[in-house]
Design a protein that fits this description.
Blueprint (H helix, E strand, L loop, with lengths): L7 E4 L2 E4 L2 H11 L6 H16 L6 H28 L13 H4 L4 H26 L1 H16 L7 H4 L2 H22 L4 H24 L1 H6 L5 H5 L1 H17 L1 H6 L3 H6 L4 H13 L6 H24 L1
Antiparallel strand pairs: 1-2
């Protein structure tokens, strides 16, 4: 990876100069820290579930699962950065945070190379997990790496077809939680499915907020997200449902005897109310950058409270 010659950045047709530390900070921001809760929460909550049902958990599994998940998430974000710029979805007119390819900090090829490095690292981190979990974990891992690329790239990019929401629920919710539980117990449990569904819905809330914010720009380049396909009103109701359904699913924990889990996670309910109220009271614009942070906070706090409930 190399920076542009003489540390020059091409921004909206003008040549400006940036210090190396500014470049490094911009690259780190391209990892999209607000979205990394999607990698953290299922690993922690799944491990806590194992303890909650009275089984032992392996610290090495948690470490390698976290490392692989973070690398896949970062790789996905970087591929998205490079491909959206090449397809014209990210321009100087975008209302979201700066993207390093669009800003000229790195070329699209450099960003794709950086993404490839993270995905290779994810594969390496996954080797101990495959050794422990066998072919089924190999299948989940390879599919996760492949979809990190296919999210916005390849002949059938999920984000451009409007089906990315389903895959986020599946891979950053259901399979992520069920996978880490299986690695520790070698069992597929209904409890891990319900927990994964809850976490997957909130992970998809981040995507839905992002897509509603970018709806107009995405429509111009034929990026057919659900917000583009069905409009603003639909997207707002999607965010509301994704925010609140996980709380309704707490009824499962209540009737299964995990009453502390069901009750303590309600502490995140005001965050869901605040986010939904803000979304319905404001049209898509720069303020949605704040709402993306609120969605990440909802995902993180709800997941951590669930985990705390299982632990205690």
């Amino acid at each position: 990876m190399h920076f542009l010659p003489s540390e020059m950045l091409q921004v909206t047709g003008k040549t400006v100069y940036a210090a190396p530390m500014i470049q490094i900070k911009s690259i780190l921001m391209a990892f999209r820290p607000k979205t990394l809760t999607a990698a953290l929460v299922p690993c922690l909550a799944g491990t806590a579930l194992i303890k909650g049902i009275g089984l032992s958990w392996d610290g090495a599994v948690l470490f390698y699962a976290l490392a692989a998940s973070f690398c896949i998430q970062i790789g996905t974000n970087l591929v998205n950065d490079a491909v959206d710029f090449k397809k014209g979805a990210d321009t100087e007119k975008r209302i979201g945070p700066q993207r390093i390819t669009q800003a000229g900090i790195l070329t699209s090829r450099q960003v794709m190379s950086l993404a490839a490095a993270f995905l290779i690292l994810a594969v390496l981190c996954g080797i101990p997990l495959v050794i422990k979990g066998g072919p089924v974990i190999l299948g989940i891992g390879l599919a996760s790496v492949l979809l990190a690329y296919c999210y916005t790239a390849g002949p059938f990019p999920l984000a451009y077809l409007g089906i990315a929401d389903i895959f986020v629920i599946l891979f950053f919710g259901i399979l992520a939680v069920m996978g880490i539980v299986y690695l520790n117990t070698h069992e597929w449990m209904i409890e891990s499915f319900v927990l994964g569904l809850q976490i997957g819905f909130h992970a998809t809330t981040l995507l839905a907020v992002n897509n509603l914010r970018d709806r107009e720009g995405d429509a111009l380049v034929n990026k057919k997200t659900l917000a583009v396909r069905f409009g603003v009103a639909f997207a707002k109701w999607e965010i509301a449902l994704l925010s609140f359904i996980p709380f309704l699913l707490n009824l499962y924990w209540w009737f299964e005897g995990y009453k502390i889990v069901a009750v303590i996670s309600l502490g995140a309910l005001p965050l869901a109310v605040k986010l939904t109220k803000n979304i319905f009271n404001n049209e898509p614009g720069p303020i949605y950058n704040q709402y993306l942070g609120q969605a990440a906070g909802l995902h993180l706090i709800f997941g951590l409270l669930l985990a705390l409930g299982f632990v205690i």
